Amino acid sequence: MGSSHGGASALVALCFLAELALRGAGAAGEPLVPAIFVFGDSTVDVGNNNFLPGCKADCRANYPLYGVDYPSGEPTGRFSNGYNLADHIARFLGFPESPPAYGSLPLEGIIGQMMSGINFASGGSGLQDVTGKALCGRVHSMSDQLDRFTSVVQMMGNGSYDLASRSLVFISVGSNDLFEYAGGNATLAPTRNDTAFLQGLVASYRSYLQELYAAGARKFSIVSPSLVGCCPTQRFAGWLKNDTDGYGCFGTANNLSRQLYPMVLSMLEDLSLGLDGMNYSICDSAALADSVFNRTVSPMAVLDTGCCGGSGRFGSAKCDKSATLCPNRADYLFWDGFHPTETASAVPALAIFADPGMFVHPINISTLAAL
Ligand SMILES: *[C@@H]1O[C@H](CO)[C@@H](O)[C@H](O)[C@H]1NC(C)=O
Ligand SMILES: *[C@@H]1O[C@H](CO)[C@@H](O)[C@H](O)[C@H]1NC(C)=O
Ligand SMILES: *[C@@H]1O[C@H](CO)[C@@H](O)[C@H](O)[C@H]1NC(C)=O
Ligand SMILES: *[C@@H]1O[C@H](CO)[C@@H](O)[C@H](O)[C@H]1NC(C)=O
Ligand SMILES: *[C@@H]1O[C@H](CO)[C@@H](O)[C@H](O)[C@H]1NC(C)=O
Ligand SMILES: *[C@@H]1O[C@H](CO)[C@@H](O)[C@H](O)[C@H]1NC(C)=O
Ligand SMILES: *[C@@H]1O[C@H](CO)[C@@H](O)[C@H](O)[C@H]1NC(C)=O
Ligand SMILES: *[C@@H]1O[C@H](CO)[C@@H](O)[C@H](O)[C@H]1NC(C)=O
Q: Could you tell me the superkingdom of the organism this chain comes from (predicted)?
């Protein structure tokens, strides 16, 4: 009893702090790490797909109404009305926003930019190389993202090793693999053995982390997929399939999110035993999402409908100039059919930064950065 009440109060405090963090400027003074290297999908992409030939428009966010609440009011490629998770994390660590998209950098600027970080993430990508290809045409898979990182590290020579070891590697990936599998692509999942499928994702994750470690990285912040069945497009899918859970979300997809987290956690526990000096922090986004959807606390009033695209069922229509925009963005958990609003993504960001052990294990990144 006492502990669940404590949990709720702590989360209320968390949301309140997230609001403050949003309104305030980035933390003053020296950043807590020299650089941040960001990998993953549209939860953290800041425009890499804008520069990717063959990437379909659905997998880009470089047109209005994306970016309406970004400082410039312009679309940037962020899948948000304003900042996304990578921006919030960067701000908590003392940077103005996420480091820039690798794709946006001139060749001669890449090594200089490495000193304070680069964002390699690509909307639509997943842990598997094949993920995103059907929907997006082309994406930068996790393998591509790591190739880009390791080739810059190699170009930099030995100085990069020390830089990488003191910097934060921030990874948010896996949702797209779950979407595609839950959506039932027979080519991707001929056997429909959930355990085998999830084990395959975790094995890929493990090999990416090993590759980053070999390039010098030591501090890893990992975000497990949220309850992916609750985003508006998946609610719609669950409704069509008559497969809904207690939240009215796509049950199969949420089940996969819940199963994946403990598997990634135990992979990290095991991996860190063998890799000297590796430290990590993992956010249990499924549990954090549970506390939002079960209304233990209700930071946002509207949890089932996208703000931009309100005309489709659950607001799952395309978020473009012709979309209906909700009156108060901060009241909405979702910005479009897949992605959280700027306000909503500040909630996990604050947990990742400062959570005392409810949703982030074994340490938050405030502690990780200071190691
Ligand atoms: C399933 O995925 C494969 C590989 O990406 C793709 O070629 C195929 O078109 C997809 N099928 C459906 C029904 O989405
Ligand atoms: C680079 O650093 C590694 C590990 O510290 C060391 O083994 C290697 O000899 C160094 N290479 C050069 C060219 O200094
Ligand atoms: C599913 O995969 C797991 C892990 O590979 C395996 O142990 C299990 O036997 C498989 N289940 C079925 C029904 O094939
Ligand atoms: C939906 O599923 C429920 C419970 O599994 C079942 O009772 C109901 O008949 C189904 N409805 C349709 C339209 O299939
Ligand atoms: C979700 O998992 C629970 C147990 O883990 C199971 O009882 C339930 O049927 C699953 N639901 C779906 C939609 O797969
Ligand atoms: C950091 O990782 C080392 C092993 O790599 C471990 O012994 C140490 O406890 C970790 N530190 C924290 C604060 O978790
Ligand atoms: C809501 O979810 C949180 C996080 O998983 C959990 O601790 C809490 O017990 C849940 N509350 C209810 C009423 O289900
Ligand atoms: C991070 O976690 C530690 C305990 O692991 C806690 O003492 C601290 O208050 C948390 N937040 C910050 C901002 O350090």
A: Eukaryota
pLDDT band at 327 (very low <50, low <70, confident <90, very high): confident
Distance 136 CA to ligand 1 centre (A): 11
Protein residue closest via CA to atom 13 of ligand 8: 354
Concerning whether 361 is annotated as a catalytic residue, the answer is: no
Q: Which ligand is nearest to the CA of 182?
A: 5
**Atom 8 of ligand 6, residue of closest alpha carbon:** 279
Determine the angle formed by the axes of helices 342-354 and 285-293, rounding to 10 degrees: 130
Q: DSSP class of residue 103? A: G
β partners of residue 250: 244
Beta strands 332-334 and 302-306, pairing class: parallel
**Could you tell me where the DSSP H helices lie in the chain?**
2-23, 85-92, 110-114, 133-136, 142-156, 159-166, 175-182, 194-214, 232-241, 251-274, 285-293, 342-354, 365-370
Tokens of 67: 């970016």
Number of domains within the chain: 1
The CATH number assigned to the domain holding 148 equals 3.40.50.1110
Going by the DSSP 8-state scheme, the letter that residue 205 receives in this structure is: H
Cβ within 8 Å of residue 18, ≥6 positions away: 88, 299, 343, 346, 347, 349, 350
pTM for this one? Answer: 0.90
Annotated active-site residue 42? The verdict is: yes
Specify the residue with its C-alpha closest to ligand 2, atom 2.
158
- Has 339 been annotated as catalytic? yes
The model's pLDDT over 83-102, given as tens digits with 9 standing for 90+, comes to 999 999 999 999 999 999 99
Range of the domain at 91: 4-370
